[in-house]
Amino acid sequence: MLKIKNRIAEYITSISIFVKIYGMFFAVIFLITALSIVVVRFSTSETLSYQLDERVKSIGSDVAARSADLMLTNNIYAMQKLVYDTVAHYKDIEYVFILDENGKVIVHTYGNDRPSMELIHINTVDSLVDNHLVMIETEKGFIRDVAVPIVKGLGGTVRVGLRSDFLDEALISVTSKIILTMVIVLALLIFIVLFVTRVIVYPIKQLVELTKKASRGDFTHRIFTYPKDEIGKLTQSFNKMLSDLEKADVEKEEYYNQIISRNRELKLLNSISANITSVIELREVLLQFVTNLVNELSLNSAVIEVKLVDSLETFYYSGSNCPLDEFELITDERQRVCTCKDGTKKHFNKFPLLVKEQKIGEVNICSSQELDPYSVKILTSIGNQLSVTIENIQLWLEVKQKEKIRLMLLEKIMTVQEEERKRIARELHDETSHSISSIILGLKVLQESSNEEVKQKEIDHLRELAHHTLEEVHELAWQLRPSILDKFGLKVAIERYVEEYSKKYPVDFDLIFNGIDTDRIRPDMETAIFRIIQEALTNILKYANAKSVSVIIMKNSHMISVIIEDDGIGFNVESVLNKDPSKYNLGIRGMQERVSILGGTLNIESETGEGTAVMVKLPLTDGGGELLDDQNYAS
């Protein structure tokens, strides 16, 4: 029993609220209508029954009054005519007959038949009362039978039978009208109920639909028209809740996209953040990276063009939906589209690769859809990281090159020092030592000689020999480091060096000085400029076969410039500088090193058969420098 009750309760509670509200309204309306019909029918039936009772009594009294004289005169014909006229006049009269004082039928309306004895005796009336009414049930329905005494106290009775079909017809008619009226009223009420129910239920229905959408994760819909009652307040609260959920969902989606974006970015960045120590490794990494780039970001194709060492290299990868062969990437930057091998148009994007604000390459992207902000952010970060990676490998190669140059310069310095020691030892042994020995021998001869003329001649010879020996010692000291540079400055030192140079080699010199006539510069800079000019003149002597040389030194408030030009045979600057450090370019590397330490720049311009120009610019402010790349010191 409890299970049945629970099932019934569960069934009722599972019914839609709309059905419940409609059911309650319709049940109430139907109940009111049914009760109204019953009450009205009952009331109408009572009223009509009373009216019929009074009517049949009135007809009976009328017939009794009109038949009193006729009965006294025993005018049977007139009484017969009276009863027929009464039946003819009143359509619902079933019968009329008159009884004498003995209860015998005098006249009747049965024609050839006569009233039955049962009918005659079913209703009797005392002569002293006005009438007596009884209800008789016949095959034709209920008949109201009234017995009215003709003359009170003398005998004789008028019997009138009135059928109830009029009442039934009246009740049916009234009931029909009531039902019709009730149907109209019911229809009107149903319309009103539907309207009222819609006013009440529609906001609830909207809320239900909205909750269904919200349960599916759609928080974008709202209810903008709602009442100001409790349902309206609930709707406002639900709208606010949806706004909060939508905001939270957007934030969650953004956070999720950020995580996905960050994961992709980290994965791609990780693929190029390895410890790369050679160009070969960098090529392998870039080839794998461009493949990962297309796969991770769902691109059609990607092409990376980057300058490695001295050549522009291309790394590309194409997806199956956009096959590309090398150099088949056709782009139109004005329309920002790229054309695949099959002729389809794709969205085109370009991301530059910059090192120290100089473009070293670019990443070209083809995609079916316009790149979203997250992909643009990823590609921008990747471009920056790729630039840093390439810069790092360049710096690494440069450091290795510098280290190699440093070791070779150190080796050259040690070799030069050793050769210089040998040369000095040789010159001291061959010339200075011989001269001193000659002086000692001459002094001994002078000591033993007694001839004044011979002594004077020997003294002159010894004086000349001592002077020559002193010049040899000065020459050795000058070659080690010109003391004149420390005493009198750069201008005098260069003039003296060029003078000595001109004595040994048949070259025309043109010296131009501007700004260093009276002002001295830092000793380290003077030494560097002197050694650079010394190295340049040495190279001209060894390789240039020049006829004339110009040395120009100009100084202003913040910079000093040095230019050494010759009209020699020239050389290919790039081919010499791009070679590994060797005896053929070690002098130039040393010049670069000196300029770099002082934070300056060294440019070399030369063409075969056109001579050579070495240009040095050194800042006069304090600070270091670095070894510049080829494009900064050669053109």
UniProtKB/TrEMBL annotation:
<dbReference type="Pfam" id="PF07730">
    <property type="entry name" value="HisKA_3"/>
</dbReference>
<keyword id="KW-1003">Cell membrane</keyword>
<keyword id="KW-0547">Nucleotide-binding</keyword>
<keyword id="KW-0812">Transmembrane</keyword>
<dbReference type="InterPro" id="IPR005467">
    <property type="entry name" value="His_kinase_dom"/>
</dbReference>
<feature type="domain" description="HAMP">
    <location>
        <begin position="198"/>
        <end position="250"/>
    </location>
</feature>
<keyword id="KW-0597">Phosphoprotein</keyword>
<feature type="transmembrane region" description="Helical">
    <location>
        <begin position="178"/>
        <end position="201"/>
    </location>
</feature>
<dbReference type="InterPro" id="IPR036890">
    <property type="entry name" value="HATPase_C_sf"/>
</dbReference>
<dbReference type="GO" id="GO:0046983">
    <property type="term" value="F:protein dimerization activity"/>
</dbReference>
<dbReference type="Pfam" id="PF00672">
    <property type="entry name" value="HAMP"/>
</dbReference>
<dbReference type="GO" id="GO:0005524">
    <property type="term" value="F:ATP binding"/>
</dbReference>
<dbReference type="InterPro" id="IPR050482">
    <property type="entry name" value="Sensor_HK_TwoCompSys"/>
</dbReference>
<protein>
    <recommendedName>
        <fullName>histidine kinase</fullName>
        <ecNumber>2.7.13.3</ecNumber>
    </recommendedName>
</protein>
<feature type="transmembrane region" description="Helical">
    <location>
        <begin position="21"/>
        <end position="42"/>
    </location>
</feature>
<dbReference type="Pfam" id="PF17203">
    <property type="entry name" value="sCache_3_2"/>
</dbReference>
<keyword id="KW-0067">ATP-binding</keyword>
<feature type="domain" description="Histidine kinase">
    <location>
        <begin position="427"/>
        <end position="622"/>
    </location>
</feature>
<dbReference type="Pfam" id="PF02518">
    <property type="entry name" value="HATPase_c"/>
</dbReference>
<dbReference type="InterPro" id="IPR033463">
    <property type="entry name" value="sCache_3"/>
</dbReference>
<keyword id="KW-0902">Two-component regulatory system</keyword>
<keyword id="KW-0418">Kinase</keyword>
<dbReference type="InterPro" id="IPR011712">
    <property type="entry name" value="Sig_transdc_His_kin_sub3_dim/P"/>
</dbReference>
<dbReference type="GO" id="GO:0000155">
    <property type="term" value="F:phosphorelay sensor kinase activity"/>
</dbReference>
<keyword id="KW-1133">Transmembrane helix</keyword>
<dbReference type="InterPro" id="IPR003660">
    <property type="entry name" value="HAMP_dom"/>
</dbReference>
<keyword id="KW-0808">Transferase</keyword>
<keyword id="KW-0472">Membrane</keyword>
<dbReference type="InterPro" id="IPR003594">
    <property type="entry name" value="HATPase_dom"/>
</dbReference>
<dbReference type="GO" id="GO:0005886">
    <property type="term" value="C:plasma membrane"/>
</dbReference>
